[in-house]
Amino acid sequence: MIDDVIARWHRYMDGELPGGLDGLLADDVVFFSPVVYTPQRGKAVTTQYLEAASRALAGEPGGAFRYTKEVLSGDTAVLEFETTVEGRYVNGVDIIWCDDAGRIVEFRVMLRPLQGIQAVHEQMGRRLAAGG
């Protein structure tokens, strides 16, 4: 099941998933951000955060963002990535859990180093304030 979910996630990140995140996220999905203290609950707010994060991390099409490792097992995926944001190196992991219907029920993002986290935080804040 997780293989199909991650294939659709990659299509989303490549801008090739019809309907965007709507069919990929469960209605009660929970998003854990590396820069927000409380979990974000529900499809609408998770969509808002993931759209802003994908633009902040991936930048323009053909940008520096790339997944470097994937571990898939059962209902869980761990995807390691690298990118640069405002000239700062960012390394992180997406930890994704799905349900039996093939929808993401939990999405966690962890980042390093501190300078990269700060750059992502600044970008995300600007994008969320601007509505995406």
Topology, element by element:
Layout: H1 2-13, E1 25-32, E2 40-41, H2 43-58, E3 66-73, E4 76-85, E5 88-98, E6 104-112, H3 114-129
Parallel strand pairs: 1-6
Antiparallel strand pairs: 1-2, 3-4, 4-5, 5-6
Helix pairs in contact: 2-3
Keywords, separated by commas or semicolons:
132 residues, alpha+beta, Nuclear Transport Factor 2, Chain: A, 6 strands, 33% helix, Nuclear transport factor 2 family protein, NTF2-like_dom_sf, SnoaL-like
Summarize the structure.
The protein is built from three helices and six strands, in the order H-E-E-H-E-E-E-E-H. It has 132 residues and is α+β, with helices and mostly antiparallel strands.
Question: Care to describe what's here?
Answer:
The protein is of the alpha+beta class. It has a single domain (2-129), classed as Nuclear Transport Factor 2, Chain: A (Roll), CATH 3.10.450.50. It is 33% helix and 36% strand. The chain has three helices and six strands; from the N terminus they run H-E-E-H-E-E-E-E-H. It has helices spanning 2-13, 43-58, 114-129, and strands spanning 25-32, 40-41, 66-73, 76-85, 88-98, 104-112. A six-stranded mixed beta sheet has the order 2-1-6-5-4-3. It starts with a helix and ends with a helix. The mean pLDDT is 90.
